[in-house]
Structures are given as C-alpha cells and as structure tokens.
Amino acid sequence: MRRTAPISSKGSSVDLPSLNALALRSLVSLFEAKENLFCRCATITKDGLHQETTSRKRTVIALLGLRRLAQSGGSQPFDLRSIANTLLKDTDWVRGVGDLGLLTWFTAEFLPERLPQLFEEFDFNRALEICPDGRQARTTGLAWFLAGLSHARMSSAGTILDLTDVAADAYHLLVNNQGENGIFGQAAYPGLLKRAFCNRFGTFGDQIHAIYALTTFAKAFEIEEPLESALNCGNSIRGLQGEMGQWWFLYDKRACRVVNRYPVLSLHQDGTAPVGLLALGEATGQSFHEAILKGLSWVAGTNELRQDLRNVDRSLIWDSIAPRGKLEKYWEGALNCANISRAYREASLGIRYEARPDHFGWLLYAFGEFGLPGTATG
User: Fold this and answer.
1) Lowest CB count within 10 Å: 25, 77, 181, 289, which one?
2) pLDDT, tens only, 338-354
3) If one looks up domain 16-370 in CATH, what number appears?
C-alpha cells in the first residue's frame, strides 16, 4: 500500500491547527462535568445554549478524536482516562452491530487491554444474526462493525480472538449493498415497506463509513480486494461533489446520482469525509486532498449562504445548511426521482444552529495529528 503526501491547508481558507483548536473548544462547551460524558447535542435557543442529555455513543467518537489530538502533543483540558472509565461502566447503549463496532474500535485504540473483557461480554460470532442492523444488513452498522473488528485485529495482532470469519461475513454483507457504480444503498433487508427505498438509496454517511471500513479491513487483514470497492465509491462521490465542495445528503446507487442535496452537514464536510478519504488515499496512493479542502472551505464560508459556519464567539461550528421547511426537502427528492432537477432559492435555506460532539470527534480524528496552533506537527 502506498502513502500519499500529507494534506496541507495551504491554498484553503481553513488553517488545520486553528480548526482543531475550535473543535476542542466546542467539545468543552458540550461536556457535562457531573456525568463525565458529552451531551447528545446543543441548540441555540432564546435563552442561550441548551444541552440535551448525555450520549455514550457520541462520547465514544469524541474520545477517539481527543486521543488523536493528544498524540500530537496538543494539550487539552479533559481527563480522557476518567471519561473512558465512566463510559465503559455501562454498555447498555450498545443495541446493534454498529454500536458494538464503534465500542470495539474505541477499545482497540484507547484501552486495548480491555479487549478480552469486551469479547467475553458480547457474542461477536453471532452479532450479525442477533442484532437488528446486522440482520437487515444496514450499511453504516456493518461498516462500523467491520471497522471495529479491523482495529481490534491490528491492536491485538490476532492473539486475543480470531475475528477472520465474522469480519469476512460483515465484509460480504457490506459489499452486497454496493451498486455497479460504487454507491451503497442504505440496507439490504429492512422491513418490507422500506425495502425498495433502502435497497436503492444511501446517505453520504453510508458511503463514507463504508469507504473507511473497507480500507481498514484491507489493512488489518492484508488483502487488496476491498480497496477496489472503496476506491470505486470514493471516486463516485468525488465526481458527485458540489461545485462549492458540498458532500450531498442522499444518493441513488442504481443511477449513481444525487437524489437529495440537503441538509449538507458540517459533520461530513470537515469530519467524516476527511476521515474516510484520507484513509483511502493513504492505502491506494490516490489523492483526495482537493476534494477534502473544498469541503473545508464550504464550512469556512464558500457555501450557498456565503456564511462562515465557524462561530468563534460561541466556540462552535454549526451543524448544517438545510431547507427551512421539510416540504422543500421531500419535494426535491420527488423531482430528482423523476429526473427533474431544480435550483434551491437562497431564501429557502438556512443554518441549523446546533452542535454535536461526534462532529468534533470526527474532525479531530481526521486532523488531530496536525496539533494546535503553536504546537502543530503537520
């Protein structure tokens, strides 16, 4: 596997160490000290910033990013080990193979000595049969599960539990959801009423998490075949990226086209897209840097509304640009399914003034190695 040159923010309106610093301050705003966990979401209301209840799943992702930042030498105000211990005291939130994969990924990277305990607590060999998202072959769930198994294998060097068979099963279920042009559908076996939709259409999250999982699976198990599927998807979504760098919301795997453009999520623009595409570029030698930097510039104001989604005063990056009314979103989908496209009016779009810790976790997982201003390593 070949490595591409490191990504640089030169030529972009986004400085990566400064972006990391903003993500770190955002996580400070989203931390619930009494519970020692991150909140699910925070929303701007007339009374200020309102925090929802804590979320262990989103705390997992936040910790993955904070660990990556800590490895760069950048200082941060959290006791990561304490938060991790709080997190692992209760695993009742694990309801599917996606959750289990995310927890495994976290444990492998953060607390690898606890992997044997995790393998005793959960039946990995039967997880795809037991869990609803496994039985339905949901793309994002399978992707997180496969990524978790792959990280566990790399962390334990295969000495704890033989994960080969279950990883191969997850891999085959995942690639069966992929269309000829690289796009993934949302699920293979959902309920009957949802089957036609889920078989054909997939979100950007489905695409990018599948790319990361396939790339990591190839690395962990030392096989090349999954990279072809990952690269096929990566090239397809890059070809469909918006002129301003938008990673659109919903895709048609049969026709390889965008069905619903909005909402465009900051989470994807500066978080999950860089995570998946940087991993794919490192594995294949094919650079996705231009597409990644365009996505970052979208967050910084090169977007439909010409507004910077980074709010330095509140130390947050806003969630998305989305239609102001639900009808607009569904109307676009209906027209696109009929192969009729139309431009959104600027007045019909608005910023969603929310912030989520998983957004900043993915951002730091992608760019944490660049450190913070003054200590940057990249």
Assistant:
1) 77
2) 555 556 667 899 999 99
3) 1.50.10.10
